Structures are given as structure tokens and as C-alpha cells.
Here is the input.
Amino acid sequence: MSTEDAFVDMALRAWKLNVDRTGKFFSSLTEEQLLHEIAPGKNRLMYLWGHLTAVSDALIPLLGFGARLHPELDAMFISSPDRAVVQTLSGAELKDIWNKINEALWLGFSKLSASDWLAKHTTVSDEDFVREPHRNRYTILLARTSHLAYHFGQAILTRSR
Amino acid sequence: MSTEDAFVDMALRAWKLNVDRTGKFFSSLTEEQLLHEIAPGKNRLMYLWGHLTAVSDALIPLLGFGARLHPELDAMFISSPDRAVVQTLSGAELKDIWNKINEALWLGFSKLSASDWLAKHTTVSDEDFVREPHRNRYTILLARTSHLAYHFGQAILTRSR
Here is the structure.
């Protein structure tokens, strides 16, 4: 493996580790448990999972892999706070969506070369990219990995309660 | 900047972003606020901050930068759960320790080349490293960045309460 490929491989391992532990945690919960709040008056687990799923779905066009699979998630889990919109999705349905989105992302990731990772993502202009070359796919991957960890840390607070 | 250096630069940016937002959050709290729990019956903010500080201090020898600055933190914030040990450290003292450790780490990071980042960290044996070459400094950096985000996501739950 080349040095460049090694850096890509490590970031993908970190991403996968976070996706796997997050998916495993939420997938193990009952429909009733998914309605528990992470802390009094805070978001419910179902909302957090939906939020992470919607953000991952948005990575598909952002990284240039194609059209979103589930743009309808944004109205429920991004543009509205928890409880603002009547939520009809079940945990079982969300689990299926989460898995399909993560499979699509992994397939997209696997086709990128090291230089593809350093290329700009789709919402940076050419001019901005000249000034800020770190606004590339790799930085997005690192940021979304932190985002997963941030919310997983919150979700895990409900364990053994 | 070479391609390899670009990958290092991006991981360091992600680390710094997480250190900065975490330090800014905890540093803004009063001594009284630092004793608030992140959720009922869960760790107090002071414990989380101490825990993150101790884990970062342990990076100094792990990455080969020298001896720990504050090994005494482990008894309070790693080997014991919150409230198990009488805690005499103030928030002001911890802030100073947090800043000094992060300065030492940043200095160490800045001296590493891309190939230094791919070299094994100090607790992997040569034999294990042959089999698992991703057990290097860079992977540690990515993992600790996720660890910061994980606990920052918990700490932020106390905001605007």
C-alpha cells in the first residue's frame, strides 16, 4: 500500500468503526426504547439516529456519488427539531434506510483514489478551493466521523438506565 | 504541500477544531457549573474535562514526545469513576493543565513528518506492527479526535439548561 493510500485507509477505518458502533447500538433498541430522551427535555434516540442517517445520506451528492437516496429525511431530522414534525417512520424502517445509505457510501468510498479524496467536494467553488485546499472530500470524511462520535456519545448515555 | 503532508494537515485541523471547541466550552464554565451532571446520575462536567485531559496527557509518551506532564490525573479521572475519589483540583487549575498539555502535544505534532505519523506508536510490538500496520501514530490521532467529539457531545447537553 502506498503512503497516500495508507492515510485514506486509516480514515476509512475510523469512519467504519464509528458507523458500526452507532448502527449496532441503535439497531439493538426496541421501538419503545427509541422514543427515550437522551437527557430530560433533550432529543429522543430516534431523532438522533434519523439525524445521523440524513446527514450521511447528504454525503452521497456532496462527495459526488450520485443523488440522495432519502431526501425526505431532512424535513423530519434536519430542518425541524425533535417533536416538531409528526414522525411516522418506525425504527425497523430507519434501520433499513441506515444500512442502505451506509452501503452506498462504502461503495462510493471504495472507488476513490487518494487524489480523489484531496479533490474538492461539490459545494466549494473553484475560487474558494484555491484559497482553502483543505475543503476536500477527506476533510468532510473526518468531520462526519467526529459528528457520528459526538452524537453516539450522547446516545450511549441512555444505556443501563 | 505534498500529498502526504496534506493528509497530515487535515487530521491536525480536525484535532485542533475539536480541542479548541472543547477547551472553549469547559473554560467558560464557573467552578459551580463544572459540578453539574451531564444527565441525571451521570458524570459531572469536571470529571469529563479531567478525563479528556488525562487521555491527552497520555498521548505524550504514546506518541514518543517524552514523559507525561500530569500522570496524577489518572487516579482521579481514568482508573476511578466520578465521585469515587476526593477531588481537590479546581476548574482554574485544570484549565491551566489542559492548556499546557495541548501546547506540548501541538509542539510534538509539528515536528513529525508524514512517515513519522505512519510509524508505530510506543505500545505496539514490532511483530504486531508487521501484521497491523495501521496501528500507528496517525490512527491514534484520529481515534483521540473521535474521543474528544464523543465527550464534547455529552458535555454540550448541559448548555442552556
